[in-house]
Amino acid sequence: MSKDEDMLKRILSTSAKMLNMSPDDINYQLIADEIKEFSGAFLVGINTYEQSGAISVTRALSGVPSGIKDITKILGFPIVGKKWDVKPERLKSFQGGNLKLFRNIYDASHGDLSKNQAKMLETVFNIGVVYIIELSYEKNGPQGDLIFFMKKGEVIRNNELIELYASLIGNFLVRIQTEKSLYESEAKFRAYMEKAPLGVFITDMEGNYVEVNQAACQMSGYSEEELLKLNITDFIAPEFLDKGLEIFRRLKENSFIEDVVMALNKNGEKFWINLVATIIDQNKVTAFCQDITNKKLAEQKMEIFSKIIELTSDNVFITDREGVIKYVNPAFETLTGYSAKEAIGKTPRILTSGLHTNEEFEALFNSLLAGNITTRNLTNRKKNGELYYIESTITPIKNEKGEITDFVNTSRNITEKMLHEHELESIHAVSTELRVAKTVDEMLLIMLDKILEITKASHGSIWLYDSNNKKLQIVANRGLNDSEENPIPPEKLGEEISKIVFSTGKLFVSKDINQDERMSEDIRKEFVPGIGKAIVPIFAGDSLLGTFDVNVKLPHEISPSDIKILTSLSEIAANAIQRMRSYEKIQKDAKYFASLNAVDSLINASDDLPNLLNTILDYMMDLLNVNATAILLFNSDKLTLEYFAGKGFRSRNIEKSQLKIGEGYAGKAALSQQTVIVNDLRNEDFEYARNELLKQEEFISYIGIPLVNNAEIIGVLDIFHRSILKPDSEWFDYVEALASQAAIAIGKSTLLNNLKHTNFELLQAYEKTIEGWSKAMDLRDHETEGHTQRVTELTVRLAQSAGLSENEIVHIRRGALLHDMGKVGIPDGILLKPGPLTDEEWVIMRMHPQYAFDMLSPIEFLKPALDIPYCHHEKWDGSGYPRALKGEEIPIAARIFAIIDVWDALRSDRPYRKSWSREKVLKYIISLSGTHFEPKIVQLFLNLPGI
Questions:
Q1: Higher confidence at residue 882 or residue 182?
Q2: Terminal C-alpha separation, the chain
Q3: pLDDT average, residue stretch 803-814
Q4: Which of 30, 49, 583, 752 is the most buried (most CB within 10 A)?
Q5: Cβ atoms of residues 94 and 142 within 8 Å
């Protein structure tokens, strides 16, 4: 026998042994040694693949034992048993089952060894080339590889035998893998069958049980031994026996079937099972059974529940965990306008109104995923775009494992309730805001702001009818002309759209004013497409006061709810406007009355004409809202109107005003004694006499009111305004009342001035008369000549030192001049007697104070001056005459004069004596302090300068 035949025989012997080996008994080392022997290689290695070729495991390495130890030292790990990651390029390079030559170890390792490791192996073992062949069989894929390390200069031998050997090993590895997979599959099946929660029943083709699992025993109530003695007919409920046999018959035809049947357990209790059956081979049927009794009962309950849901008026829909709608009830279809066919398969986003934020929906979804039942109010949109409100309750549905599988959304339509509440809230909000308004204009702006807020409108205005001008006028505006989207002048709108509502008294609503053929082309083109409008009339009883005008931008539309709210608010507005107008009129009338009353009081209390007229002008500018006013007074000497007072002018040029009667508008008013009204000075042909004076004032309107007193012109009231004035009758009533007061003030001032002048002249005459009487007395008594003037002067000085008022001093002076006036009643024989008087004569002499009182008291003008003539001979201790007054019973003027009278008498020469020295007189006066004179007055006299 040749050597090749001997090697082939050995290969076939080894192959036969391999066929009888179990996967655990294969001797890879024996195979490696045989291959090394006939290949002539220095080392031979066997690698097998695991995990579908992803891992390579070195099973054996044939060679010198000492060499294997050296390899371990070089690599740093044992080579046999080593697992390597198999790179795709490595598998690709071995395809075909032929020997593959590599020039070095590094290339053969495909990077599993480093270049240094590969080089050391080549050097230590004198390795030249490396051969590798794939272990494969037919088309079963690579199962491993053989690797041959050749000494330098040597080549591999018996290539064909090596390839045959590799094929045999590959076939063996495929068989091992197949048997192992089959074994593992069977083991898994057995393990699953035992552990499966489903009941597994295996029968023969006649329906006799041949194998069952533990779950089948628990489900049926029989032991395994008992079940294996039974037939399927023993397990099916009598009423389902025919169906069960029919299922078994169909199974033989189709090899697979699924159905629901009612079963019967050992205790005779019926229960429902879901049956899945298949023919594994021609002799056995395997049936997997699940107890679905609870599910069946739940389905029955669900059927009842479904009927309830179908009939309920509540809106119900069910979604899966992802939010896809699975079911909707009829109420859902009625409410939303979506049919079940249109809604199922969609998400609730088809109902989104756009009024809720993504953050709100995210918070809602997170709450539901947490297992919470969530109730909240939502605003949704129907298929036709109409908004509606719901109270929604969403309930998560969980399976037996506690996992959320579905959501049930049950909701109640609360649109009417919400709209009613919204209407009440809107009315309350507006009513609350209006409480702070103080004027109609302020109130209308507040109301307009609230209307825009409530209706979410972008623009709005309020128009009121002006009875004076017989026109609708805009009185409140928000948003119009704020952007290029709506540049139309509000006045133009009022002339057309609002006028339609005002003339008909009917509501006007337009979804898109740009497309509304009720409007003229001029109005329509002023609006960009997509601007909706509503105009609501404002009624106060049967009287139409004006309109609300509200604009919105599509897709937002003016809803019926908005119209209802606007209508309610229009009623509030009408009442508020009427009430505020009445209040403003009362306030205005009160201010008018108060100002007129204040001016009246001022006229009665003051003679200051400039202050009076300036006050009148202040009231006029404040309450009449005019820019400038002036008063021109009539100069009767020159027959001209001349400036006297003015307010509100930019320069002082007006002060140069001087017009002849009939000249200019003011002169015309004075001449005709009628009010002159010029609405627009720019359009008047009449020559404006003061044009140069007022050229920088930019006045447009003028009113001239004549000031008349006792049918005579005394001046003109000028009123100027820098825009067109549109006064009503009340305005004119107030102006004329103020003008009348101005005329009264001027007339009173003129009268008072004349009276003061007359009084002054009369007073001067009185003073001259008194002085004449005084001189006459001095001329009668030559001895006292000059006495009256001296004592008068000194008495005035002492009265001033005593702190008496100027008015009191005026009367003291007159009293001092007249102190001896009573002596005109004393006979010359007594008055001019050179010697001492007898007692009888003294009695007559002491009558002169009484004579003075009797003579002067009838004169009203001199009554305040009688204290000195009547009481200057009274003494502090009560010993004086004519009434023996004591202390402060004596008038202060007489107490002062008594000292001065004695001083001057003693300091003057008399026929019967010489004058006393100053010191002697002062000593004498001091000696009389407390008896004849008041001590305090004595002290003041002593301190008087020049005494």
A1: 882
A2: 187
A3: 90
A4: 49
A5: yes
**Pairwise CA distance, residues 382 & 392, whole Å:** 15
d(CA 876, CA 894): 11
CA distances from 380 to 351, 383, 422, 711 (A): 5, 10, 16, 79
The kind and range of the H/E element at 465 are strand 459-466
Q: Which residues lie below 8 Å from residue 390, measured CB to CB, with a gap of 6+?
A: 315, 377, 378, 380, 411, 412, 413, 414, 415
Q: Quick one: average pLDDT of 72-97?
A: 77
pLDDT in tens, 717-751: 888 888 888 787 777 777 777 777 767 777 665 65
Distance, in Å, from the CA atom of 812 to the CA atom of 802, rounded to the nearest integer, reads 12
How far is the C-alpha of 524 from the C-alpha of 511, rounded, in Å?
Answer: 13
Identify the residue whose tokens are 């627009």: 680
Query: Which ranges constitute the DSSP H helices of 802-856?
Result: 806-817, 828-831, 839-845, 848-856
Angstrom distance (rounded) from CA 859 to CA 821: 14
User: Residue 408 contacts by C-beta under 8 Å, 6 or more apart in sequence?
Assistant: 316, 318, 394, 395, 397
Residue 124: CA atoms inside 13 Å, Cβ hemisphere, count?
Answer: 17
Q: Please give the Cα distance from 498 to 190 (Å, whole number).
A: 89
Instruction: Categorize the per-residue pLDDT at 487 as very low, low, confident or very high, splitting at 50, 70 and 90.
Output: very low
**Chain Cα centroid distance, residue 898:** 88
Sign of CA pseudo-dihedral 814, 819, 820, 822:
positive
Q: How many Cβ atoms from other residues are within 10 Å of residue 28's Cβ?
A: 20
Token couple for 486: 């709506």
Top mean pLDDT of 281-285, 535-539, 716-720 is at 716-720
Overall pTM > 0.85: no
827 with 844: CB under 8 angstroms?
yes
Tokens of residue 658, six digits: 């001087």
Contact (Cβ atoms closer than 8 angstroms) between residue 609 and residue 578: no
What's the pLDDT tens digit per position in 546-587? Answer: 887 888 887 777 777 777 777 777 777 777 777 777 766 766
pLDDT digits (tens, 9 = 90+) for 90-131: 766 666 677 888 888 888 888 788 888 888 888 888 888 988
Say what angle helices 787-801 and 806-817 make with each other, to 10 degrees. 160
DSSP state of 836: P
User: Using an 8 Å Cβ cutoff, are 216 and 201 in contact?
Assistant: yes
426-430, 475-479, 595-599, 665-669 — most confident range? 665-669
Got the DSSP string for 479-516? STTSSTT----HHHHHHHHHHHHHHH---EEES-GGG-
Alpha-carbon distance 521 to 514, whole Å? 9
DSSP H or E run through 786 = none
d(CA 598, CA 587): 16
DSSP category for residue 527: S
Residue whose structure tokens are 């008041």: 934
8 A C-beta contact, residue 150 and residue 167 = no
Q: What are phi and psi of 309, to 5 degrees?
A: -60, -40
895's CB contacts (< 8 A; 6+ apart) are: 876, 933, 934, 937
User: Taking a C-beta distance cutoff of 8 angstroms, is the pair 844, 826 a contact?
Assistant: yes
How does 535-547 read in b/e, with b if 16+ C-beta sit within 10 Å?
bbbbbbeeebbbb
Say whether 654 sits in a helix, a strand or coil: helix
Token pair in block for residue 183: 């074994």
**Nearest residue to 168 (alpha-carbon basis) of 1, 4, 21:** 21
Percent of the chain with pLDDT over 90: 9
Q: How confident is the model at residue 599 (pLDDT cuts 50, 70, 90)?
A: low
Phi, psi of 439 (to 5 degrees): -135, 165
